Amino acid sequence: MVAVKLGMLHYVIDHVYGAFMHRTRAITPPFFSRGWGGPKLELLERMAKQLFPMYVEGQNWPPPLVRPVWRTVWETRTACLREGVFQTPCDDELTAALPPESRTARVAWLVPKNVPPQKMSCVVHLAGTGDHTYDRRLRLGGPLVKQNISTMVLESPFYGKRRPFLQRGARLLCVSDLLLLGRATIDESRSLIHWLDTEEGFGKMGICGLSMGGVHASMVGSLHPTPVATLPFLSPHSAVVAFCEGILKYGTAWEALRDELAAQKITMTLDEVRERMRTVLSLTDVTRFPIPKNPDAVIFVAATDDGYIPKHSVLELQKAWPGSEVRWVTGGHVSSFLLHNDAFRRAIVDGLDRLEWKEPW
């Protein structure tokens, strides 16, 4: 009985937080207040449908090699934190669709000192919804320095210093922006992992992310041609779950989306608009992606009483990727994010332990 009440409390906390963040529109506009995105959405739908033929064995690999320009933020006897910038490796058509502010990628890199890279691992951490800075992910990865695990934090397009001028907070202006953010994150992450492998010579690589970042981490791990540890935390199998089923549906500008269609002489009810959103966001369904090269190194960490991500969504992806593992932490989306960093760190360590060390050059 106590466990049931506690679980309900976590679930309620998620909904109270969601009501404050996503139903209060006086401070910031809702998601997609400027509509679907017009030609950009059509471009991204086409690109998403081409995604798998582009990434089949031997095609579109290696990705464009990035060469970050680094500056040292701080340095101690045991570790060094650097920040780097590089031009997004997206193709010309995709780069032109990005807002100018998002075309320069930014990363933070926390590296153990006095350890050769072939005896180290590096994990790329991707941003969850609303994570505009490096700080949270550096705090997650920081203690792993003692275990010779380096942390690389990618700032998402549309977030932080890459946020478009007219965008307020994390509220993307158009539906196309969500797909654009995801596709650019995939391309940038793949190029970074390739750089860590071929230029820096790390012995093992991993990709992780929380919530939206976990969806993107799943995609990157799925499409990578060699085994990487893939670690999605508190994440659904598709953006459909977040925006059409979870709390974010209360922070979505359904009326604006309907009005844009009406201006194009397309009459839809709000229910039909939501169904169209489901169709568009089904392009983000990770169960459609290939099984990663080493599914044993895929560890999902999910919350028992998550108001944003229902259990069935996590289990759908585990079923699609036989050999992967789901670990449950007690809590909701918000409380687990705050209280269970140790569980996330254990998953990172265990996922990397399930990989073989790369043979030295």
UniProtKB/TrEMBL annotation:
Signal peptide: none annotated. It comes from the Eukaryota. Pfam families: ABHD18 (PF09752). This is AB hydrolase-1 domain-containing protein. It comes from Eutrema salsugineum (Saltwater cress). The lineage of its organism: Eukaryota, Viridiplantae, Streptophyta, Embryophyta, Tracheophyta.
